[in-house]
């Protein structure tokens, strides 16, 4: 952080002051962290705190996707890492597994767009969100800055000890509906329905079977119990072992902002099947081992898995060369403070 400025950081991680010991960084731990209390803090509490502590900010940075209610003449940056409002997918508010997604799709944008003004700037975690944000909120493109995160992928010489007589497929995922885990089960179900021998295919997926009831039902319906292994949540070191040791990585998620597992798979030169979505095109399209597939297509995914099984290719290790860095973020901060939002150049 630029030491010519004083930063007041409001967060809930109370061990940070022990890690970042700098005179120009002050950590504040508000009592209001979640729900309606959090809204109170964003829209009333911060302004009240600023007045009571006699602090007039030169710039407000929100790292929570939303805007802050403050004086209009105080410039703001909103850091947007929530992608749900920008995808063409609908969810059912009456389905408890989809209710939170419905909220982020239909209600949350109100808080993202509230208080946007001519002294407001937006930083997106991915380039594909830039145009989506501009269109949704009628916000000027020249005040939106896509600054992708710096990606440092660990290396590992250790490999997960798989049965080498089997074809081991790694699915780094979580039990959310948008992760589209059923795509893989339906793909194997399709192969079985075509009398393909899938007895040697093993899918290792990174949560407990009880966590994704829909996936479990599809597995049972297609009699795929022997084809799926639920590892439970893995440490990062174990994740690297799975990437290094597996034969194929699958990532059928249709909703991601960035899609880090794609780069992790590519870093080990693994063949990769992933959803043909904007996030994947941006992150991994240059990797020769990646194949982007339309979702909800068991035939396409099944035949692609079978093709990889028959050919068993390995690719050159790939590292994405993103031009952006956190230096660009802090340069933007400096430019806004210096020019008060009037002459910031893209």
Description:
The chain has a 6-stranded parallel beta sheet with strand order 9-8-7-10-11-12, sandwiched between helices. The radius of gyration is 23 Å and the shape is elongated. The protein is of the alpha/beta class and 346 residues long. The mean pLDDT is 90.
Shape assignment: elongated
Alpha plus pi helix count: 12
Q: If strands are numbered along the chain, what order do they take across the biggest sheet?
A: 9-8-7-10-11-12
For the termini, the CA-CA separation is 21 Å
Number of strands: 12
Task: Quickly give the structural class.
Answer: alpha/beta
- Give the averaged pLDDT, no decimals: 90
Largest sheet: 6 strands, parallel
Provide the helix percentage: 25-40%
Helix-strand topology string = EHEHEEHHEHEEHEHEHEHEHEHH
Uncertain runs: none
Assess the beta-strand content as a share of residues: 5-15%
Q: What's the gyration radius in Å?
A: 23 Å
């Amino acid at each position: 952080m630029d030491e010519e400025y004083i930063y007041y950081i409001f967060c809930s991680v109370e061990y940070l002051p022990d890690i970042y010991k700098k005179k120009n960084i002050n950590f504040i731990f508000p009592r209001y962290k979640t729900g309606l209390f959090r809204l109170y803090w964003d829209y009333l509490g911060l302004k009240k705190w600023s007045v009571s502590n006699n602090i007039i900010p030169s710039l407000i940075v929100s790292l929570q996707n939303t805007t802050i209610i403050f004086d209009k003449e105080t410039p703001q940056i909103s850091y947007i890492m929530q992608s749900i409002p920008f995808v063409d997918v609908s969810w059912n508010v009456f389905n408890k597994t989809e209710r939170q997604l419905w909220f982020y799709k239909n209600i949350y944008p109100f808080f993202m767009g509230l208080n946007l003004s001519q002294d407001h700037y937006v930083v997106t975690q991915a380039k594909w969100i830039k145009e989506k944000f501009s269109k949704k909120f009628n916000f000027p493109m020249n005040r939106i800055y896509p600054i992708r995160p710096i990606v440092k992928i660990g290396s590992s010489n250790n490999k997960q000890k798989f049965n080498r007589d089997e074809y081991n497929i790694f699915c780094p995922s979580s039990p959310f509906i948008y992760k589209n885990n059923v795509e893989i089960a339906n793909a194997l179900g399709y192969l079985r329905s075509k009398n393909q021998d899938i007895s040697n295919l093993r899918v290792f997926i990174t949560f407990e079977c009880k966590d994704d009831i829909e996936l479990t039902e599809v597995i049972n319906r297609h009699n795929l119990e022997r084809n799926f292994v639920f590892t439970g949540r893995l440490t990062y070191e174990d994740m690297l072992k799975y990437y290094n040791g597996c034969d194929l990585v699958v990532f059928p998620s249709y909703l991601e902002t960035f899609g880090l597992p794609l780069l992790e798979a590519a870093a080990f030169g693994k063949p990769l099947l992933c959803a043909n979505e904007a996030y994947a095109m941006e992150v991994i399209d240059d990797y020769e081992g990646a194949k982007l597939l339309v979702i909800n297509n068991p035939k396409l995914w099944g035949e692609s898995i079978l093709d990889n099984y028959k050919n068993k290719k390995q690719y050159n290790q790939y590292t994405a060369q993103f031009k952006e860095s956190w230096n660009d973020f802090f340069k933007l901060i400096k430019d806004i403070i210096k020019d008060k939002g009037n002459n910031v150049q893209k």
